[in-house]
Design brief:
The structure holds two protein chains of two kinds. Chain A is built from 13 helices and no strands. Chain A has helices at about 5-40, 40-45, 60-65, 70-100, 105-120, 125-135, 145-165, 170-180, 185-195, 195-215, 215-220, 230-240, 245-280. Chain A is globular, with a radius of gyration of 24 Å. Chain B has two domains: about 1-55, no CATH class; about 85-265, MetI-like fold, CATH 1.10.3720. Chain B has helices spanning about 1-15, 20-55, 75-80, 85-115, 120-130, 135-145, 150-160, 175-200, 205-215, 220-230, 230-245, 250-255, 265-275, 280-310; strands spanning about 55-60, 65-70. In chain B, helix 3 (about 75-80) packs across helix 14. Classes of the chains: A mainly alpha, B mainly alpha. Chain B: InterPro entries: MetI-like, MetI-like_sf. Chain B: It is a multi-pass membrane protein.
Chain lengths: ~280, ~300
C-alpha cells in the first residue's frame, strides 16, 4: 500500500465529503426547480421557503401545457434535433471512416485539419452571414435553416468521435470481408457499425443534445411561434410570465425531462464519447 | 499495429507508382468526405470569407443608401464605440474567471472520482448532470434562485446573517457579470471533470509506486508525478474552453442581456447588438473579424507551446 491505513481512512472520508458536496452543488438547482413547479403561488412567494410542499399542485404544468405554445415548441425541437442527429450521424460515419482509413491521402488529411480549425470558429461570428444566406434562400422561419446550421456544427465533433472508434477496429476484419466480395459501404454498415454500436449511441446522443440545447441560432433564425424551438421559447416565457416562477419552472422541468431520461439510460456511453472526443480527438 | 498498416500502401506506392486499386480507393475516399466538405464550404468557409469581406464594406440594412468599400472605417468605428473597452475587459474577466473556476472544480472533482470508493459511477453521473441541461434552463433556474424577493439563495444568506438584506445579484452593476460567471462555472465544470478523470486514469500506477518506494510522500507524488502527467489534457482543455467561453453568447444573453447598463456586455453580445438590433452588418463583421484575429493569436500561442513541448 502506498499510504498508511490512517491516512487512507482520512482520504476516503474526505473523498466522500467532497463528492457529497459536489452532488448537492450539482443537483440542488434541479431539486428546487421541481419543488417550485409543484408549489402553489402562496408557497412560492414566502420568505420562509421549504422543501416540503403542503398542497402540491399541477396548476403550473396545466398552465404551461394548455395556455401556451409549449407543446408546439417541444414538437419542433424534437423534430429538428432528431433530423439533425440522423443527418450528422450519416455524414460523420462516412467522413470518420475516410479519416480513419484513408488519412494517407493529402486531400483527406487537409480536410481533417480544416475541420479541426473550424471547431474554433464561433457561431456568433458566422451568425451574420448565415442569417443573410438563410434570408436570401428564403429559409428564415423554417426548420431547414436550423437543421442545416446544427448539422454543420455537430458534424466535426461527431466525425472525430467516429474516427477514433473506427481507429480501434482492426483492419483485418475489413480485409476478409472485402475478399468475400463485400463493397466498401457494405463493410461499413455490415461489419464496422454493428461492432461499434455503443460508440454510435454516444455520437448520436451527443448530436441530439447539441441540437436540443442550442439557443442562439434558434433565437435568430426563427421569428414565428409555429416554428420556434424550445430553448428560445422558454427564454421568451420569461418576458411573458414575468414573475410567475411556478410556470417558468414547470416549463423548465418539462424541457429537461427528455434529456434526463436519455441521460439516465445512456450515461455510460456519453462519458465514453466525451472522453474520446476530448482527449483522443 | 496501426502504424504498420498505414505504411503498407505507401511502400507499394513507392515501388510501383499508384496502383489501380489505390486509385479506386482514393476515389472512394474523396466520395466519402464529399458531403462533409460541402457542408463545410457552404456553412463555414463561405460565411467566414463573407465576414472578412463585409468588415471592409459599408453595410447597413437601416441605411441602404450608404454602401460600398469602407476601408477601415468599420474597425475605427467599432474600436471608438464608448462601450468597446468595457466589453473587451468584460470578455477577459468573464473568460479568465470562468475557465479558472471550471478548472479548479474539475480538478478537485476528478481527483475525488479517481479514488476507489463505493458509488463512484453514481457520483460521476450526478456531476455530469449540469452539463447536459440547456443553458437557457440553467440560466432561468439560477435566476429564480437568485431573485431578491423570494429567491432561496438570498433568503438563506440573510438567515445565516451573511447578508443584511437580499442582494439583486443580476441587477447590480458590480455583481451581474460575476454572478453569470458563477452560473457558467456550475454548468461547464463537468466537462473538465470527465476529461481530467480520463487523464488521471491513464497515469501509470507503476510510476507512482516507484516514487513511493523512493520515499516520495503523498504531496510530493501529487505535485511531481501526477500533475505533470495531466499537463497535456489540461492545456488542451483550457485552450478549447478559453475559446468556447470567450465566444459564448447564450449565458449572458439569457441571464442579463448584457445589462444592467452594459456592465455584463461581452464582445459576442456586442456583435449581436450591432447585427440584430442596429442592423449594421459592417460594424458587426468588423468586430467579428477582430475576435477572429484574437482567436487565431490564441491558437498560434497554443500551437507554439505544444510544439515546443514536444521538441523537448
Amino acid at each position: 500500500m502506498l499510504i498508511s491505513r490512517g491516512k487512507q481512512r482520512f482520504l476516503t472520508i474526505l473523498t466522500y465529503v467532497v463528492l457529497l458536496g459536489f452532488s448537492v452543488y450539482c443537483l440542488f438547482p434541479f431539486l428546487w426547480m421541481v419543488v417550485t413547479s409543484l408549489k402553489p403561488d402562496a408557497e412560492i412567494r414566502t420568505v420562509d421557503p421549504s422543501f416540503w410542499i403542503s398542497t402540491p399542485t399541477f396548476k403550473h404544468f396545466d398552465n404551461v401545457l394548455n395556455n401556451s405554445k409549449f407543446l408546439t415548441f417541444f414538437k419542433n425541437s424534437l423534430m429538428i434535433a432528431s433530423i439533425t442527429t440522423v443527418a450528422s450521424l450519416l455524414i460523420s460515419i462516412f467522413t470518420g471512416y475516410a479519416l480513419s482509413r484513408y488519412g494517407r491521402f493529402r486531400g483527406v488529411k487537409l480536410f481533417s485539419v480544416a475541420m479541426l480549425l473550424s471547431q474554433m470558429i464561433p457561431g456568433v461570428l458566422l451568425l451574420i452571414p448565415l442569417y443573410l444566406v438563410m434570408k436570401n434562400l428564403g429559409l428564415i422561419n423554417t426548420y431547414a435553416s436550423l437543421i442545416l446550421a446544427y448539422t454543420t456544427f455537430t458534424v466535426p465533433l461527431c466525425t472525430f468521435m467516429m474516427k477514433s472508434f473506427f481507429d480501434s477496429i482492426p483492419i483485418e476484419m475489413e480485409e476478409s470481408a472485402e475478399i468475400d466480395g463485400c463493397t466498401r459501404v457494405g463493410i461499413i454498415f455490415r461489419i464496422l457499425l454493428p461492432v461499434s454500436l455503443p460508440s454510435l449511441v454516444a455520437t448520436s446522443l451527443f448530436a441530439f443534445l447539441n441540437a436540443w440545447n442550442e439557443f442562439m441560432f434558434g433565437f435568430v433564425f426563427i421569428n414565428d411561434e409555429a416554428h420556434r424551438t424550445l430553448t428560445p421559447g422558454i427564454s421568451l416565457f420569461k418576458g411573458l410570465y414575468q414573475t410567475d416562477w411556478g410556470s417558468l419552472m414547470a416549463s423548465s422541468v418539462l424541457s429537461v425531462l427528455p434529456i434526463v431520461i436519455l441521460f439516465v439510460f445512456l450515461q455510460k456511453f456519453l462519458v465514453e464519447g466525451m472522453t474520446a472526443g476530448a482527449v483522443k480527438g | 499495429m496501426r502504424q504498420l498498416e498505414l505504411e503498407r500502401p505507401t511502400k507499394i506506392k513507392r515501388k510501383f507508382g499508384m496502383t489501380l486499386r489505390e486509385k479506386r480507393i482514393k476515389r472512394v475516399a474523396y466520395l466519402f468526405v464529399l458531403p462533409a466538405v460541402l457542408f463545410f464550404l457552404a456553412m463555414n468557409a463561405y460565411p467566414l470569407v463573407t465576414v472578412l469581406w463585409d468588415s471592409f464594406q459599408y453595410k447597413n440594412l437601416m441605411n441602404k443608401a450608404l454602401s460600398g468599400w469602407a476601408g477601415l472605417a468599420n474597425y475605427t468605428e467599432v474600436i471608438h464605440n464608448e462601450y468597446f473597452r468595457k466589453a473587451l475587459w468584460n470578455t477577459v474577466v468573464w473568460t479568465v474567471l470562468s475557465v479558472a473556476g471550471e478548472y479548479v472544480l474539475g480538478l478537485i472533482s476528478a481527483f475525488a472520482l479517481n479514488q476507489k470508493i463505493k458509488g463512484r459511477t453514481v457520483f460521476r453521473a450526478i456531476i455530469i448532470v449540469p452539463w447536459v441541461v440547456p443553458i437557457v434552463v440553467a440560466g432561468l433556474t439560477w435566476t429564480w434562485m437568485l431573485t431578491p424577493d423570494y429567491g432561496i439563495i438570498n433568503l438563506w444568506l440573510v438567515k445565516l446573517h451573511i447578508l443584511d438584506e437580499p442582494v439583486y445579484w443580476l441587477g447590480e452593476l458590480d455583481t451581474a457579470l460575476l454572478t453569470v460567471v458563477f452560473v457558467n462555472i456550475w454548468r461547464s465544470f463537468p466537462f473538465f471533470t470527465i476529461s481530467l478523470l480520463a487523464g488521471l486514469q491513464s497515469v501509470s500506477r507503476d510510476i507512482v509506486e516507484a516514487a513511493a518506494i523512493d520515499g516520495a510522500g503523498v504531496r510530493k507524488r501529487f505535485f511531481y508525478i501526477v500533475l505533470p502527467q495531466l499537463k497535456t489534457v489540461s492545456l488542451t482543455m483550457i485552450f478549447i474552453h478559453v475559446i468556447w467561453t470567450a465566444i459564448n453568447f447564450d449565458f449572458i444573453w439569457v441571464m442579463t442581456e448584457g445589462g444592467p447598463l452594459y456592465s455584463s456586455e461581452t464582445l459576442p453580445i456586442m456583435i449581436y447588438r450591432y447585427a440584430m438590433q442596429d442592423y449594421n452588418f459592417g460594424n458587426a463583421s468588423a468586430l467579428a473579424s477582430l475576435m477572429l484575429g484574437f482567436m487565431m493569436a490564441c491558437f498560434v500561442i497554443y500551437y507554439m507551446m505544444t510544439v515546443k513541448k514536444n521538441r523537448r
